[in-house]
Amino acid sequence: MTDNMTTVQGIYEAFGRGDVQWILDQLDDDVEWEEGIRDTGLPYLRPGRGKAHVASFFEALAGNLELTRFEPGPLCDGGDVVMVPVLHTGRIVGGGEIPLNWEAHYWRFGSDGKVVAFRHMADWTHHERAAAQVEAATA
Fold first, then answer.
1. Minimal CA–CA distance to 116: which of 58, 36, 30?
2. Is 109 buried (19+), middle (13-18) or exposed (0-12) by CB count in 10 A?
3. pLDDT of the chain, 139 residues: tens digit per residue
4. 94 in the Ramachandran plot: left (φ > 0), alpha (ψ -120 to 50) or beta?
5. Residue 26: which CATH number?
6. In the prediction, which pLDDT does 134 show?
7. CA–CA distance, 12 with 85 (Å, rounded to integer)
8. Which of 15, 46, 48, 110 is a plausible cystine mate for 116, CB 3.0–4.6 Å?
9. Quick one: which of 96, 94, 113 has its CA closest to 3?
10. 14, 26, 45, 59, 67 from 95: Cα distances, Å
11. Are 28 and 49 in contact (CB under 8 A)?
12. CB-CB contact of 111 with 83 (8 Å)
């Protein structure tokens, strides 16, 4: 396994144990996070840069999404890019259910072995519909 793939595997392991600091330590100080993603209205899917932005991503994720299943698939080595299919399901806190579905994670590395870019790639309508149930309940 390449060093980049080992790092990505370690990131998923750290995510599973809630070790956000370990994840942040694998990132470039100016990491691009979710660049180019469309506006979903979801607090955990916002583009930004830097470790502080990534820390806020994990806070928003924990406060808004309860994952009941999160299974990274085979890591696909592309040199400075690692792609990972991820099967997940869960619910929006105070909202609706998110059915079992796939997303892909894009990890790009710099020459120093730090993650310089990350992006989720998925059809976010399941999340948006579940989040709309929170809004409907509070209206």
1. 30
2. buried
3. 569 999 999 999 999 999 999 999 999 999 999 999 999 999 999 999 999 999 999 999 999 999 999 999 999 999 999 999 999 999 999 989 999 999 999 999 999 999 999 999 999 999 999 999 876 666 5
4. left
5. 3.10.450.50
6. 75
7. 12
8. 110
9. 113
10. 27, 33, 17, 18, 13
11. no
12. no
The per-residue pLDDT for 122 is 93
Give the span between the Cα atoms of 44 and 65, in whole angstroms.
9
- Closest Cα to residue 4, out of 35, 22, 26, 32? 26
**How high is the pLDDT of residue 74?**
97
Q: Are β-strands 115-121 and 27-33 bridged in parallel, bridged antiparallel, or unpaired?
A: parallel
Burial of 135 per CB tally in 10 Å (0-12, 13-18, 19+): exposed
The number of domains in the chain is 1
Domain that holds residue 102: 3-138
* Residue type at 88 in one-letter notation: H
- Which two three-digit tokens encode residue 57? 């991503």
